[in-house]
Amino acid sequence: MNTLRKPQTALVIGAGVIGLATGRALALAGHEVIVLETARAAGTQTSSRSSEVIHAGIYYPPGSLKAALCVQGKEMLYEYCAARHIACQRLGKLIVATTPAQQAQLEAIAQRAYANGVDDLQPLTQAQAQALEPALHCESALLSPSTGIIDSHALMLALRGDLEDAGGMIAFISPVQSIDCTHPDGRKRLRTEDGTVIEADIVVNAAGHGAIPLAQRTQGLAAQHIPKAWFVKGQYFTLSGPAPFSRLIYPVPQTGGLGIHLTLDLGGQARFGPDVQWVEHADDLHVDPAQRERFAQAIRSYWPALDAQRLQPGYAGIRPNIGGPGEAAPDFIIQGASVHGIAGLVNLFGIESPGLTSCLAIAQRCAQAVTD
CA-to-CA distance for 127 and 132, rounded, in angstroms? Predict the structure, then answer.
């Protein structure tokens, strides 16, 4: 049996849900942890701009990190929410074929889900689906009972509390300028933008959109290990008034995303999105009101009675993609010393959906990577 050395200091860069979960995991493992965050608060970028869905693990290629960590992370997250009294609900989700031609896609989705270990999907006829959701139009559907929703802000607050209870801390307004991994003692030197230098045995780059630029500013990390950054903007429209659905409604997936679907928050308000727009910058968060009719047209494929005037511009998020237009969706990258050769350094690239669902499983994998 290998005895794991417990380094004295671990620095996690980024206080989104992944960085907080990773900092918590390292602190619970006995490390002295500081989470460095550029912003004034936790989770202000990707983590606070999602649909807050707990995914089942249905869509991802069998054998991928996304598939494995989503299925594992889902169960970990539900257990964590129960233990910490974090608001969440297993509402269930209907994936709907709105034309006869799409029914074969549902079968393929079901087969992939089963290969990923998701064995609770239930095929529904049109009548069965409409018995559950009378406002729904479809030819057939798949019911995913383990899909749910969560209060992501309460989750991040709980993760931060666990981190701090275990002796860790968060340093806000602490943007990292560079990382130097070339020192012969194996310790990493981080320089913040105000000139402060911090030494650490462990560094986890969980900076989201900033992860790739920071990797490019990491001395000792070969360029071949750094992917290209792509930015995918997803807009959301909210629905004024009550929604006629009690479950999440998803069309069959489309190129680049899961289609403009309906999700519900814990207060019961419906929102639709995200769409897929390739943009140049991660700060392009404008929601274009002129897109309302395009959204309405997509939504009417499964909810024909929608009144477009009830759609209001909501919010937008940017996915930290590492694959470009027309490419197959890439897998998560959890890159440790076995890839780049730098002990104690883990880079997280392309942690988009289902990152929220997978956060505790990703954190566990990061904690293992720095001690391998």
Answer: 9
How many Å apart are CA 302 and CA 181, to the nearest integer?
A: 53
- Listed residue (341, 148, 368) closest to 246, CA to CA: 148
Q: Where are the alpha helices (DSSP H) in the chain?
A: 17-28, 65-84, 103-115, 126-132, 152-165, 211-216, 292-299, 337-340, 355-369
Q: What is the pLDDT of residues 193-210, one digit of tens each?
A: 999 999 999 999 999 999
- Domains detected in the chain: 9-51+153-227+329-370 (3.50.50.60), 93-145+230-321 (3.30.9.10)
List all residues 6 or more positions away from 309 whose beta carbon is below 8 Å from its beta carbon: none
215-266 tens-digit pLDDT = 999 999 999 999 999 999 999 999 999 999 999 999 998 665 668 999 999 9
Q: Are 251 and 273 in contact (CB under 8 A)?
A: no
Measure CA of the first residue to CA of the last residue in the chain; give whole Å. Answer: 12
User: Is this prediction's pTM over 0.85?
Assistant: yes
Q: Which two tokens stand for residue 183?
A: 């020192």
Coil, helix or strand at residue 152: helix
Residue 31 buriedness (CB in 10 A; 0-12 / 13-18 / 19+): buried
Angle at which helices 152-165 and 17-28 cross, to 10° = 30
